[in-house]
Design a protein that fits this description.
about 280 residues; alpha/beta; Rossmann fold; SIR2/SIRT2 'Small Domain'; globular; binds 2'-O-acetyl adenosine-5-diphosphoribose
Length: about 280
Amino acid sequence: MDGSVPQASTWLAAAQRVVIFTGAGVSAESGVPTFRGPGGLWKTFRPEQLATPEAFARDPRLVWEWYGWRRGLLAACRPNLAHVAIARWLLVREGVTLVTQNVDDLHERGAAEAALGLAREGRLPSGIVGGAGDEDEARLLEVRAAADRVAPIRLHGSIFHVRCTRCGIRVPHQGRIDASSEATLPRCASCGGLLRPDVVWFGEALPQGALGAAFGAAAAAEVCLVVGTAGAVHPAAALVDETRGAGGRVIVVDPGETAYDDVADVRLWGTAGEVVPGLLRGA
Ligand code: OAD
């Protein structure tokens, strides 16, 4: 059913446990393209050429070129009001788990912004850092620790991490990708194997630890707040069924149609940046 922000806020405020489940739409107002809507990546590019293990085995240079381009796009983007509001809520409330399908780092960057804002207001839960000499440094460490504490569970990996196709090691990787030839592609520092983006491609299993943690949190949640996902890609999309199956409520924020429209207890038709800050302020 369609619903009101105050009703949804009341449920969120009363819940002991909440899961927030985000998709590409939460980053749309930051300038990150979604996958399926107008202007979506899968309207211009073919996933089977760019986002499968077979595509990478066939033409790693082409795949890296595309991921390098997307990394460049992201570097120019900033977290939007929804990322910051979600992070702020996570920082000041217990019992909230953030689960994302996004491979960007905007939830993390939003968390750093939110933590800094709370620190300036003197509202950052303290006790994280003790005894550091320099006050600015102590605050910086505290902000960082707080932002780390509210990092999302990632169901589809991270575009800023790589994995070695030979030894399997996973490491952060922010540098520029030189995809001018196969010889210039990034290589593993320990074994020299070819590195690949540490994201989940079509036909691949989701990381078991993340999947278990996310689905466990959803099953225990009284409310699942869904923001900016069409709900078209499984198994991630089934997260919402865990909350519903255990008798919890579902709130959906999205300006377009989603797979959850018939099952949402409250359906808020609007963008993440327009709806989420007010929704969580009231919660
Ligand atoms: P989609 O592109 O399928 O859906 C994006 C959703 O965001 C749609 O429902 C839009 O209506 C909504 N949307 C657009 N602008 C919005 C805004 N400003 N605020 C809120 N919502 C907005 O993206 P996902 O559901 O995230 O997987 O796609 C799921 C997975 O499919 C992705 O993680 C990716 C993709 O293939 C992999 O790469 C494995």
